[in-house]
Amino acid sequence: MRSFAHILVFKMVARGELLCYSPLRYVAQKTSFLCRGRPPAGPVGRGTGATSIGRVDVSEPASISASIAGRYAIAIFELSREAKGIKALEGDVAALREALASSADLRDVAVSPVYTRDEQMNAVAALASKMGLSSAMSNGLQLMAAKRRLFTLPHLLSALSNLIADEKGEVTAEVTSASELSAAQAKKLAETLKKQTGKTVKLDTAVDESLIGGMIVKLGSRMIDTSIRAKLATLKNAMKEVG
Asked: Which of 8, 84, 155, 200 is the most exposed place for a label (fewest CB within 10 A)?
């Protein structure tokens, strides 16, 4: 565990990515010249003078959660690449995503402040062993649990997926449709997006029946909304202007 933590800190420092609200806050305090701004006076996410009770504040903005997870993802990814374990890491990400989607207990352990640090660490260790996760992923999750950052797990998996896709020359498109896409529809959409981007496009699909029909495609900073819900909203706004 200590070895992984030291490697993680080294990689953060080397890139100048160690922020003052870093999950490894004790390092930020010792190397404050690397911080962008002043270190927090109290525990992360709490006011000055607050007393830490070892609980995580899950109300932190999503952007901060993504930033925290991103730095763990970079370390896990680079350790996996150095060990020639990108394929194993890709399997880890897929397995953990499926586990998060299917297990309410796992989601609860990851985000609930009711569980102690030790309980989260024990749960992660058992999960890693049962799922046969790679050492880089297993150690990374252990460190996240130890630093009360396990609630950023969904962001971690997304960041790792992007890093793996870049390594393979792929891009991932987030596709939300009113109903599940058939294999033929998914293939046609991927081919269309490949022509537009010049890269192999991997689809990350989800279903949202409130769209009524059509789909929303997010590809990098681009978003294409062909849903009936969006068209109805546009029509409603147009009618307001006429009235």
From this structure: 84
Q: Which comes out higher in pLDDT, residue 93 or 18? A: 93
Topology (CATH) of 2-42+58-165 = Peroxidase; domain 1 (1.10.520)
Q: Which helix (H) or strand (E) holds 207?
A: strand 200-207
**Average confidence (pLDDT) over 212-236:** 88
Cα gap 187→171, rounded to integer Å? 15
DSSP 63-87: HHHHHHHHHHHHHHHHHHHHTT-HH
Query: DSSP secondary-structure letter at 42?
Result: S
Instruction: Name the β-bridge partners of 203.
Output: 173
Q: Which helix (H) or strand (E) holds 238?
A: helix 228-242
Residue 152 burial (C-beta neighbours within 10 Å; 0-12, 13-18, 19+): buried
- Positions of CATH 1.10.520.20 in the chain: 2-42+58-165
Residues 6+ positions from 169 with CB-CB distance below 8 Å: 199, 200
| 101-148 pLDDT per residue, tens | 999 999 999 999 899 999 999 999 999 999 999 999 999 999 999 999
Q: Which alpha helices (DSSP H) does 168-209 contain, by range? A: 183-197
20 pLDDT above the threshold of 50: no
Q: How many CB atoms lie within 10 A of CB 53?
A: 8
